[in-house]
Amino acid sequence: MLRDITLGQYYQADSCLHRLDPRVKLIGTLAYVISLFLFKNITVYVIAAVFLWSVIKLSKVPFSFMVKGLKPVIMILLLTVVCNMLFTPGTSVISFWKITITYEGLKMAFFMTIRFIMLIVGSTIMTLTTTPNQLTDGLESLLAPLNKIKVPVHEVAMMMAIALRFIPILMEETDKIMKAQIARGADFESGNIIKRVKAMLPLLIPLFVSAFRRANDLAMAMEARCYRGGAGRTKMKPLIYKISDKKALVCVGIYMAVLIAGGILGNRLPI
Amino acid sequence: MAIIVNKLNYNYNDGGKTTQVLKDISVVIPDGQFLGIIGHTGSGKSTFVQHLNGLLKAGSGTVYYNGEDISDKDYDLKKLRSKVGLVFQYPEHQLFEVDVFKDVCFGPRNLGLEEKKVQLRAFAALKQVGVPEELFYASPFELSGGQKRRVAIAGVLAMEPEVLILDEPTAGLDPKGRDELLEQLAKLQKEREITIILVSHSMEDMANYAERILVMDQGSIVLDGTPKEVFAHDKELEEMGLASPQVTYIMKELKKRGFSVEEKVTTIEEAKKEILNSFKRKVAGC
Amino acid sequence: MEMIKIKNLIHEYIRRDEEENVVDIKRAVDDISIDVKPGEFVAILGHNGSGKSTLAKHINALLYPGEGTVWVNGMDTSAEENLWKVRESAGMVFQNPDNQIIGSVVEEDVGFGPENMGVPTEEIWQRVEESLKAVGMWQYRKKSPNRLSGGQKQRVAIAGVVAMHPKCIILDEATAMLDPSGRKEVLRAVRALNMVEEVTIIHITHYMEEVIYADKVFVMDQGKVVMEGTPKEIFSQVEKLQKLRLDVPQVTLLAHELKKAGVPIEDGILTIDELMEQLDKRK
User: What's the sign of the alpha-carbon dihedral B205, B207, B210, B216?
Assistant: First the structure.
């Protein structure tokens, strides 16, 4: 199941979205996320859905690939839906035993689900079309002003890049250690909470030992390749705004404008 | 009895693409055999051995252990895993306890044995793999690479399996560590009469220790026989990115050059005998 | 001038308890002197724990001498002002391919070293292209390292070092975790660099079949150099190698066994052809 998470993965393809400046993609994603929370009516979601759909088409990432990434979050999604349905007061629609489902609850759950799915898909697109290194470069560049207040922006970005690179490796390792311990009769699935937490130790301790060993090795390898922090470093892929990036920013701006207009109009509709 | 694999298939799904990792594998592994499995990386050999103790579920086909289908709903997989021990590649990465002895106790304790029995087994297993007693209470993380690996193997051995599968147990060891480990495995097979299944890249090790070799390529078993039989197919092996031991090539070359020697030779000892005999025959013939 | 000159090098690992008292001293490198000329392919053999990796780390200034001196391209590694120059001159490839690749895309990883050195952007791209082509990994430049085989990952790691334009590359058991075909790939790439670009290579390994092409071989045991010479000279001493529990190529071993049984064969046979030449005389 761990392997199915597409959030944070990169999908190799050649699309205009892949070629965009990571800063544009970060800003665009931020704008999109904000847009989802500005209003709560159908019109807005339709506009956002159209925008999302065209971005997915542009990205050349197969839709089925993204849907697979949604599977692991479905549990969380179901939980929010159920909570919303049960605990929102309002006009009752169905009522049995001590449970009442209200019209407002259904509406709330419906909007929550849509918002959540669109949120995940939207941010997944950014990570799918941007290599982790570009992403961290983008963040580093956008957060550069923080350097003035002594935030080690380069170091934080480097840490992020390394973390992203090692996630798949450590996931594979978890799988292997888990299997090795099962082969030694370990049981990760039965028993109460305390028993289960205890059963995790034979998995977690080797995993941490391995992570530290890898960290040690990597630090040595980086030092051998003359890494000495951000100062004096040049960039292989410096970030420069191209015409296409400016166009993309304009598109995001237009999208926001349309959405806000739609939102205001939509609020006047009866739904 | 023993392990019978019948038409085993296994598919792996990765990002929408399905690859067939195992194709129609059928094989009988009798009790007490020293079986070698060789194949290029990605030939499916690691996936195959994980089916033998139920860590992976077959897509189709059946694995029988002692006559019972291990995919049956009420088959006790935990018991199977105590009978069919599996030592993964770089097994030292699974060590986790504060001392060596406790770590080896983990397996037998999971079997629900009484404490005294657990400790006796751990003690015996550590002795069998040649870990000296003064290391029993050392932290497993402070041992050398070779010692760590022995402790990890003892951890599986302490479950007293009838079949011991080892996936590349000598990877990363130096020649000394490798030879010692393989000797110990051969001794175990003889003394405790357990089946040993050894997955390895080293043709020389296979020639020296295995009674029978399975060669896997792209998910199928393509060759199955004694080392002599298998290594006679050096051309096919090369096409799969493998090779026969160097000594087999030497004998082939000699034969080509008109020496009267048997070419199906896989160890130095045999080669030496063959060459000396051919010289003797020549002297006698003159 | 020597590419690398090591004189009376001693390195000790000292373990201390919580009160900083010395508990244990292990001498990993014990009075070693070695010279390596520019363009040479040198192999260092020995068991795990023989001190060969410790020696390697000295050449890259990842460790400093306890006693003695190490010069890389004429620079004393213990002088702090030489640190980065030393590391640029002597690149290092490590054992575990996963733990030395920093980039999430092959080309970005190869560019990491030049970036650190402050090489201008345009030149970084040139260097990345050259180095990936030199190790035969150019067509994989856009791939994620996680999708590569062990041998391919190591070749990327080598390209990452080559892009720093070092005069010398140290492979610290870089083939130990690879399968036979991966080992061949890596060795082929390294030999090409040595012959075409005349990069000095120091190859640390315990696989005997990898050293037969070396110009010079050092055998280490317990922190000391115990044998030194051409591969032929080293493999002439089969019994000594066996005593050190090191492997000998099968053809060398067979020739040695035949000789012991009275067949007149030269010492130090390294290839099947050489053995055939010797045996043909007896036909």
Answer: positive
